[in-house]
Amino acid sequence: MLFEFEDRALKPLEAKVRAGERLSLEDGVTLWHSFDLLGVGYLANIIRERIHEDKTYFIHNRHINHTNVCVNSCQFCAFGVKENDPAAYTKSLEEVFSDAEKYESGRVSEFHIVGGLHPNLPFQYYLDMMSGLKQRFPEVHIQAFTAVELQYLAKIAGMSLKDTLLALRDAGLGSVPGGGAEIFAKRVRRKICSEKTTADEWLDVHAAIHSVGMKSNATMLYGHVENAEERTDHLIRLRDLQDRTGGFLTFIPLAFHPENTSLDFLPSTPGQLDLRVLAVSRLMLDNFPHVKAFWIMITPQIAQVSLAFGANDMDGTVVEEKITHAAGAVTNQIFRKNTIVDMIVEAGRKPLERDTLYEAA
Ligand code: V47
Question: Ligand 1 mean position to 24 CA, how many Å?
């Protein structure tokens, strides 16, 4: 296909992308600043189609957010509250199991479980959640607890991170979601999540997950106070860890939703930024197999277009999503499988149902 770049600065990058050469920090910054969004998308699509051709994955999953009580107070978050807040909730294990059962009688292939850092729940609650779900739904893969939660669980368990991971794995944990990474740069963390796990700690937790043979995902929260260099630095630090461990499956950019947060003076992310972040991520993260368009956060419409801008995964049926809906998301919380299939087909791609580890489901 003959493609004319509007921005001539992108032309040298095409040669690099076609030759499979790694893009540098400067290349990343060029991509963020280019006025030629279609050109950036065109470059990302070269890699997307080289790896996946027309294939677009989705999963039959159910998210569960077991508690919104959190000892941290991240400025970008509208989900976490203190224990005495009228909006605070903590699901009993029976409620978690009954939620898991509610959607299609637990016949999903994945439970995706994340929550706040609860001050009083014992480590046993989390072990019993894993083993209770496995006992009831032995076929369902459990992807649970961000790196931030895992670091906290190790603290309340009084165990090393590795022993905590092994105990959770023995109880049924299958893999780890990508949340909590936000933006690694110290300047940004000081402004949006000053109390949180540091960038190095987040990366160390994922290195530990990979060292025990488990897979994990990675995210980047964008569209708040970060700049182009900081986004590129974030992607390069993920790429460096992936070079060392190979344990990341998927990268998921998360579009910042400002409503009900301390950063509510910021606007929502524009569609052009959502597309650009997916495209630049696909280009920079040359060693990540998958880049996911999380339709809940960027809308189904942008997610469809993103399948020509680097994304090759649409996440899944989801069913319950409280984190971005607390922050003003207006999307559905559930899409049936046939709706996702239709969306992918309408976008001119080939839908493939997968399990968490990207085997055909
Ligand atoms: O860790 C919190 C982010 C994450 C807001 O691994 C916000 O496959 C936008 O990590 N606006 C949780 N984002 C969600 C998450 C995730 C989602 C889908 C798939 C996967 C995966 C992981 O949501 C948090 C935080 O980074 N978040 N508040 C907000 N106002």
Answer: 27
